[in-house]
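fwd from M.: "can u put these together and see what the complex looks like"

so here's what she sent:
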Amino acid sequence: MNFITTYCHISEDHCAVNGEVLLTNESENSWIRTLYDHFKIDYSKFHKMDLMSKIGVIGSEILKSQNGKIVDYDDDEIALVFANKNSSANTDVKFQQSFKENGSPSPALFVYTLPNIVLGEIAIKNKWYGENIFVVSENFDPEFYENYCNILIPSKAMACACGWVNVLNDSIEAFFFFVEKEASTEDSLPLTSNNLLNLRKA
Amino acid sequence: MEELKKNLKEQIIERLNLEDVQPADINDNDPLFGGDLALDSIDALELIVLFENYYGLKITDPEKGKKVFESINTMADYISKNN
Amino acid sequence: MRIYIGAENIISPLGKSADDNFHALKTNTSAGKYFEGLGFNDETVFLMKFDQKDKTSFSQLVDDCLSGISGKLSGKLLSSEKTLLIFSTTKGNFESNFTNGIASFCSDLKEKYELKNDPLAVSNACISGVLAINVAADYIKPGLYENVVVIGCDVVSEFVLYGFQSLFALSDDVCRPFDEDRKGINLGEACAAVVLSKNVEIFKEQPLIYVSGSSSNDANHISGPSRTGEGLYRSVVKTLKLSGLSAKDIDFISGHGTATVFNDEMESIAFDRLKMNHIPINSLKAYFGHTLGAAGLVETAISMQSLRNNLLIKSLGFENQGTSKQLNVIEENSEKEIAAFLKTASGFGGCNASLIIKRA
């Protein structure tokens, strides 16, 4: 049995950690900048990322801030298991505009027109060399996370940083959670599809 | 010249999607590559596109590109000398 | 538990079955052609793309490929509740549904083929195909499904073509993997599939055995490969460890070999670190182009044919060693007893994957 040891949500109007709303989007500053400052990310490459990668990096930083054990894993023990509905569509639209409306295809946008780039950005930020997978599905599929984390742990990974991160027309729907063999935090819950469905709604 | 530098900063922020960076965050002499902006080879390609689109300047030699794109000052110099 | 893999199929400009495609490779035929004015700014581009006369839609390619594999299987496997379909793609049919080209296509497949389970779509850049095969085996092992059909498809779109042009990553003629004069990739389009199962009897032709596989991230750069081949090195080490085999059991390597300066150099460094650079290696990119989400499946299917026929396929486009570490690039088609091969892939996002397949 594996456990969900911490989780968080990010949308365009709020950010919740382990079910408690921590920040709401009220300030004059950009929402992403507010989150970046609040979680003291201080990472110059962050500003060049597309929105989905930024959300993914913020999400992984929040998980680390809530579970001190995450940084103790070896550099290839944490797998990244992510999914969404619209793939990289948010940036695809912008890249298409670059050549249809703004004169020429933008290389800096093109490199973000794959959904798994967010995994690369998280891996680079944390120097995580573990397994990666990005899956696209019409709806949040708790069984996928349950099955795949149970497959990976312990034969191919010791823990999984998981995410559902969908960004379209700059609207954000993100849910991140960390899965481990042991219930390392007080709020840990068994990794089951039902628990995932409930936490996602929280 | 100041106007040109200001425009350059705005164009770089726009083309490189540095959404959370303000023009005032970029100093004229700061190295664009290897500095706080953490620009890389893909961004160099983007700056080549920017030069062509906004200033009609074609840079085909990557070595020359490296020198030209060192900082806002070197970019502005190159534009004013070649326009 | 033994996991069988077989019923491989490929639809590409080189042919409409795995046999047709393998036959074209036996004569070292490339699918590449010049397409006038197709690129951005009406540039002429060299692509492995279907001719206008054979122009076929994304969904037609998938239909043709699925109907090809069903002829190689006994019974109605696809619509069985014990079967999962895994779809591998980078962009899906996004030319029909721009913001939802993958998930909606999978829903359509489910309805059309009366699939009992929701298809799983893996979209992990250029390693999608190899990763999807690994996931298939991982799902069979604990008994979640008995059979998994893995199908990969990507087509050449204006979007992807212009993107690679903007990166100055395209070669203006047929690409030259591992060669000193290599200057970039060719884009290609194809659809390919394999079937994995715990049941040998579902295959009409003797299947092979899937041994192991894994993935690893370079943690270095999103659009450039690691200078040390870190992720590829780690993935192969892990795949070998899981396999119980050692490097000496690998008879050939089907590399990624995109023919960009940095990718091929990275592969040579990784295989040198692995002490596997003496093993015969090929890249099939000069035959099929880079077919992105289909590439891992196309190249695994051809390698399975190589194993079945005990025939190493020449790495087309290669003449002179062009990497800092020596590789044993296959220079001519040659007969060899093949018991097992290693397939590797690397892609944007710093991802790498590998798998091993052996004779049953």
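replying to her w this: Chain A is about 35% helix and 25% strand.
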